[in-house]
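Sharing a chain and its predicted structure for anyone who wants a worked example. Both blocks are below, sequence first, tokens second.
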Amino acid sequence: MHIHPTREAAVAWFTSAGDGPVTMLNLLRFREIADYTASPELAPADPISGEAAYDLYVKAAGPIITAAGSELIFMGKGGAALIGPSDERWDRVLLVRHPNREAFRAFSEQPDYLAILGHRSAALADSRLFPLTVD
């Protein structure tokens, strides 16, 4: 299960060369029922699906993404891989473009963003985040 970057991965990426635009490829697998154990203050009154919890996250994160100069450029349903392990599937795929690494860092460290991050954690059973850059 991979929900958040490790400290080592984050340090390596933020200190590597490159300052151009970066597009984050998000591969997401939802929990059947969202788990708000780590963020009970965000939990809805009644249990909701992981997908519904992620939708709350996207709604709250949208203005924060825009304020950082970034944009959600694609969000769609996932599924099984055409090329890849036959047992691997992703429920949703997102592409979020950031002007540069610093813009991504500023976005991800915003207090308003950190306050809603629990929706994402509650929603996900597993995820992958690939930073994509142009050569």
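Comments welcome. Residues 20-132 form a domain with the Alpha-Beta Plaits fold (CATH 3.30.70.100).
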